[in-house]
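call fold(seq) -> tokens
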Amino acid sequence: MNSYKKDANNQVVFSKDMKLIELIDADHHLLSVLIRLDIQLPFGDVSVEEICERYDLSTEAFLMICKVCSLSDYEPEIEGSDINHIKLLLSYLRSSHRYYLESLLPTIEHSVDKVLEGCLPRQSEILRKFYGDYAEEVRNHLAYEDMHIFPYVESLIKGESATPSRMGDFMEEHTDICDKVDDIKSIIIKYLPEQCLTKDRSDLLYMLYDMRDDLTKHTLIELKILTPMVQALERRVCNE
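ret:
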């Protein structure tokens, strides 16, 4: 029987007092949050607050990330956030970037090649190019954040001069990298010939669904948590 608490809408109540194992039992996808924050197994029977203290992490920011990743209708309360919250968000987002670039994208590319082994060159060219173009778009999107958005946020944390609404300007130029995954899935499901094995196709589709969901949560963390926190910090710095 699950030991974690649920509210009147049958949603998990994430709190600082819940055991970390309860958090993982509530949503096993949150293992990725632990990995990206470099929280190592085994962690014993500790609470969320205790593990955050052990790793010098903001408990509030940690729970915000977990809630955005797990609860579809979660709206974070940004008021009262501080620089430590932003530091944790940056650490998590940068780690996510490394995962996408070093592991996820190359793994999916390998799976695409495996699916297309039985296809004629002309048949395989469309999917291989489509995925290649999409992977390049993702890399450019992440590079923009690494080169422009994150350094700007770090300069604010250091107390350097702020530009009013600069973060808002950055996010207006922020492209959506989730939608095109559906186009790739359609090609795999509808149009590849029978020579492309169903088992290999299914494995690839699972990865694409996981990538779409992960990138969607990644974007929500940037939009719902990081951006309003940074905008609040901009106002504080500009008014000092």
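The longest helix spans residues 198-239.
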